[in-house]
């Protein structure tokens, strides 16, 4: 049996899964110390004694703690960024286009060094040991312990990053170092940004992960613990201590994966309706479709693998205009229980409309009895129109598709959606995130630019697959179960026609 | 007029509109230009007609494959050093610099060069939009030779060119870009003030800033954007501006053929009724067909924008499901001559049809 836990900003949800069956589920408030929120949830799950601690084989945790820390600019440690790229890129230092507040929080300490490679493996410059040593001497004096290292084309040749890291660790043995090539994708500035965001979270990650482990041991759970990452796969808890940034956006991913598990639908649209937004995502083959654009986290451009989510301002707390024709994007959010009409407040919200329509019984329905029928009808029509139009934008093809509704706000959908071939409202949809965490597997990904003229296609794909597999095994996957789930080949414009960017993703069961 | 840091966002936004789906992401050139202009101050803009006939002008920009060179970041002084190398090569100081192409990141590089060298930048460019090859530039069409030219790479290596034809020059600089990490800066098409006046697409630099400002200030539904855009284009070298279609992208497929990103996008009305619009893509949006009938074609500009915000969408980023509006804008008169259409007409992109001006369709 497995336990899945989702530690969100507001709620900590937990489920016990036996194979495919949800045996127990609970929702508790997230506590400031994280630990007691998790122990409370575990208490509810385990206290009736139906399931014993010893029966639990693994615990999977999904968390938004790290995303929230970046967005809210808290728990950020000072970072020194080292980029190996000179003589290219002079004058475009690390963090050059970051929002001022987060750059200041992290500090703008950076170093540019000679070295790195071009796309074809030619060195940008030879590394200069004297330059590296001078940089390290300065690091030692500055006292910064968290260091991000990026070099040009490191996804293809990571030697410069490894070389500098080794020298730094020799001089500063307790330094925490992130190497950008571990974030795979091409795009030096975006990959470097990812490495810096990761580095600034390292001290917080140790704290959070040890809180998780402490909460579990407190309740007698000593089985292996995994944390879910943004592509719906898992990492071992140790691994997350070194790569907290890989958890970014694991919330929406788990919600999509949970929706898949609850319905068994591999290809569907998932609409997660919360208090402020409706997050629309797409399941393809049981996994979230990934976004192909530059992803900003807290205003910083990155190259993270993220599910393609369209968030629209429609939730259970969205504010409705007097005539019912305009909804959101303003929302009363978690203050719904004070400000919504049915709770005795003064703001007309979508929840009030649903109560007035008679579909749901929430709060005091007499407080919305005065609403005119036309206002209720206008609002209902507008809500369905908003969802229809935006689902339509996300759909991968012209045909209507199954739509899975999850999240507390899914009561807002009272009628049909044109874009939906059928609407699903699975039981336990409220804990979809925790279920998504509990069913995750372990993945690995790698990307390279190759010339099929020099390396035949089959051999090129095999090479990239091998690196992806090594990454998955390192993250805790069982080698024997690893299978390739995605091969992406992109030919590069203007170049030799056989120059192709190859990206491979593999997935395996927990070892 | 002077261009300072505060104009750059608008210039970049306007340049993406004029890039008609191609031209590349101006993000990195914008970062470079912001830093250089913040450090060195504003750049003087000179209208072509104010240039002396015997002035010496050179065009400058980046050449290569952005997808390959994305790990090869430019340096702040690449553009100015390219000009230094050019001046040394020809043994003469340049009086002003001009842009190859106003569409995309190459709208910004001449400003960086001009700031670095303390010379003015010409208000105009060699395309009035984005086009994929050197021989399609108005300078080349008007008979200006691309060489003597120099190329400057990330390491400061300088290569000089003296070629027999523009086509050969194009082949040579592409090959050089490939062995230089995928991107080089070139100073090319040197010419006199007189030659520039006869070949430049005038006013496009300041126009692109105005266009970006219009898009920013009126940000919102493309239905509401049409009127301000028409007001702007009508009083410019472009003229006609139409909203060809509004709807949803129902298909988009491209693949690389002969160095181009070639394919097609299909757009249907929001409610799925009525005619269908097809856009042919070859790096840029080149042809718009409504139920099979051509309603706009290259060299007129075809621009796809996000329906809700009117933000132009690059061809690489266009995908199924997006709600878009398609605008068409008449190209500058220069490109409507027989001489120009021989090089940039629909046939030059493999379409079996003759160009018909937007207003006559």
What does this protein structure show overall?
Chain A is of the alpha/beta class. Chain A folds into four domains: 1-73 and 203-248, ATPase, nucleotide binding domain (Nucleotidyltransferase, domain 5, 2-Layer Sandwich); 76-200, 3-Layer(aba) Sandwich (Rossmann fold), CATH 3.40.50; 265-428, ATPase, nucleotide binding domain (Nucleotidyltransferase, domain 5); 441-508. Chain A is built from 14 helices and 23 strands. In chain A, the strands form six sheets. A six-stranded mixed sheet of chain A has the order 3-2-1-4-9-10, with helices on both faces. In chain A, strands 11, 12, 13, 16, 19 and 20 form a six-stranded mixed sheet that branches. In chain A, helix 11 (350-357) crosses helix 12. The longest helix of chain A has 22 residues, at 373-394. Chain B is α+β, with helices and mostly antiparallel strands and 361 residues long. Chain B folds into two domains: 2-202, CV3147-like fold (3-Layer(aba) Sandwich), CATH 3.40.1610; 219-351, CV3147-like (Beta Barrel). Chain B is built from ten helices and 16 strands. In chain B, strands 1, 2, 3, 4, 5, 6, 7, 8 and 9 form a nine-stranded mixed sheet that branches. A seven-stranded antiparallel sheet of chain B has the order 14-13-12-11-10-16-15. In chain B, strand 11 (260-268) and strand 12 form a beta hairpin. In chain B, helix 1 packs across helix 8, helix 3 packs across helix 4 and helix 8 (204-217) runs antiparallel to helix 9 (222-234). Chain B is globular, with a radius of gyration of 19 Å. Chain B starts with a strand and ends in a 17-residue tail after the last helix. Chain A binds chain B through residues 85, 87-92, 96-97, 116, 118-120, 122, 124-125, 152-153, 186-189, 292-293, 389, 392-398, 449, 490-497, 499, 501, and chain B through 27-28, 31-32, 35-36, 64-65, 67-77, 154-156, 174, 177-179, 181-182, 248, 250, 255-256, 258-261, 270, 283, 317, 319-323.
């Amino acid at each position: 049996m497995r336990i899945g836990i989702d530690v969100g900003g507001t709620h900590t949800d937990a489920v016990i899964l036996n194979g495919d069956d949800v045996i127990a589920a609970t929702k508790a408030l997230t506590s400031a110390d994280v630990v007691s929120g998790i122990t409370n949830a575990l208490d509810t799950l385990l206290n009736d004694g139906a399931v014993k601690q010893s029966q639990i084989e693994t615990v999977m945790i999904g968390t938004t703690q790290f995303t929230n820390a970046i967005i809210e600019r808290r728990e950020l440690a000072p970072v020194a960024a080292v980029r190996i790229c000179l003589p290219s890129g002079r004058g475009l230092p690390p963090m050059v286009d970051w929002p001022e507040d987060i750059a200041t929080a992290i500090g703008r300490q950076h170093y540019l060094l000679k070295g790195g490679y071009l796309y074809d493996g030619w060195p940008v410059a030879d590394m200069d040991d004297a330059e590296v040593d001078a940089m390290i001497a300065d690091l030692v004096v500055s006292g910064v312990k968290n260091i991000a290292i990026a070099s040009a084309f490191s996804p293809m040749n990571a030697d410069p990053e490894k070389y500098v890291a080794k020298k730094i660790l020799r001089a500063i043995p307790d330094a925490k170092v992130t190497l950008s090539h571990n974030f795979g994708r091409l795009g030096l500035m975006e990959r470097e940004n990812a490495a810096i965001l990761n580095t600034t979270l390292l001290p917080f990650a140790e704290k959070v992960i040890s809180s998780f482990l402490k909460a579990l041991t407190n309740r007698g759970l000593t089985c292996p613990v995994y944390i879910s990452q943004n592509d719906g796969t898992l990492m071992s808890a140790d691994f997350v201590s070194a790569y907290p940034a890989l958890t970014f956006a694991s919330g929406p991913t788990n919600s999509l994966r949970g929706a898949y598990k609850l319905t068994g639908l591999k290809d569907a649209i998932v609409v997660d309706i919360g208090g402020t937004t409706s997050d629309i995502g797409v399941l393809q083959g049981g996994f979230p479709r990934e976004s192909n654009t530059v992803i900003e986290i807290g205003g910083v451009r990155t190259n993270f693998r993220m599910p393609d989510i369209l968030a629209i301002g429609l939730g259970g707390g969205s504010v409705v205009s007097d005539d019912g024709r305009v909804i959101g994007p303003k929302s009363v959010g978690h203050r719904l229980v004070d400000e919504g009409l049915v709770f005795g407040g003064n703001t007309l919200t979508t929840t009030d409309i649903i109560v007035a329509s008679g579909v749901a019984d929430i709060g005091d329905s007499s407080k919305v009895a005065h609403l005119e029928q036309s206002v209720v009808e206008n609002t209902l029509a507008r809500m369905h129109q908003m969802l229809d139009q935006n689902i339509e934008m996300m759909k991968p093809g012209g045909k209507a598709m199954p739509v899975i509704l999850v999240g507390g706000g899914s009561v807002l959908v009272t009628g049909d959606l044109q874009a939906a071939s059928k609407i699903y409202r699975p039981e336990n949809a409220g804990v979809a995130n925790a279920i998504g965490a509990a069913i995750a597997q372990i993945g690995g990904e790698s990307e390279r630019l190759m010339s099929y003229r020099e390396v035949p296609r089959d051999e090129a794909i095999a090479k990239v697959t091998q690196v992806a597999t090594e990454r998955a095994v390192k993250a805790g996957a069982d080698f024997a179960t690893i299978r390739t789930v995605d091969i992406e080949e992109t030919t590069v414009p203007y170049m030799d026609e056989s120059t192709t960017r190859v990206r491979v993703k593999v997935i395996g069961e927990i070892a | 007029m002077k261009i300072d840091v505060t104009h750059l966002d608008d210039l970049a936004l306007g340049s993406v509109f004029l890039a008609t789906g191609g031209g590349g992401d101006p993000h990195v050139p914008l970062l470079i230009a912001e830093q250089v202009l913040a450090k060195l101050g504003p750049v003087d803009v000179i209208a072509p007609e104010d240039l002396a006939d015997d002035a010496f002008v050179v065009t400058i920009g980046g050449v290569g494959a952005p997808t390959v060179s994305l790990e090869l970041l430019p340096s702040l002084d690449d553009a100015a050093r390219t000009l230094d190398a050019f001046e040394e090569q020809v043994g003469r100081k340049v009086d002003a610099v001009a842009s190859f192409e106003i569409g995309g990141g190459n709208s910004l590089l001449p400003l960086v060069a001009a700031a670095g060298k303390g010379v003015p930048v010409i208000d105009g460019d060699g395309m009035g939009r984005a086009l994929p090859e050197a021989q399609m530039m108005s300078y080349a069409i008007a008979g200006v030779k691309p060489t003597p030219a120099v190329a400057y790479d990330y390491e400061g290596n300088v290569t000089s060119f003296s070629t027999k034809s523009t086509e050969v020059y194009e082949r040579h600089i592409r090959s050089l870009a490939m062995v230089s990490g995928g991107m080089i800066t070139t100073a090319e098409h040197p010419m006199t003030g007189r030659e520039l006046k006869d070949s430049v697409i005038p006013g496009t630099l300041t126009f692109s800033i105005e266009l970006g400002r219009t898009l920013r200030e009126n940000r919102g539904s493309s239905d509401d954007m049409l009127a301000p855009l028409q007001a702007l284009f009508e009083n410019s070298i472009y003229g006609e501006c139409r909203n060809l279609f509004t709807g949803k992208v129902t298909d988009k497929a491209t693949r690389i053929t002969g160095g181009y990103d070639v394919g097609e996008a299909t757009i249907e009305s929001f409610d799925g009724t009525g005619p269908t619009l097809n856009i042919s893509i070859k790096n840029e949006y080149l042809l718009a067909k409504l139920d099979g009938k051509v309603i706009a074609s290259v060299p007129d500009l075809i621009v796809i924008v996000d329906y809700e915000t009117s933000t132009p969408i690059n061809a690489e980023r266009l995908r199924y499901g997006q709600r878009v509006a398609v605008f068409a804008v008449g190209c500058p008169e220069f490109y409507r001559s027989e001489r120009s259409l021989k090089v940039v007409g629909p046939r030059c992109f493999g379409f079996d049809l003759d160009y018909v001006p937007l207003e006559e369709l």
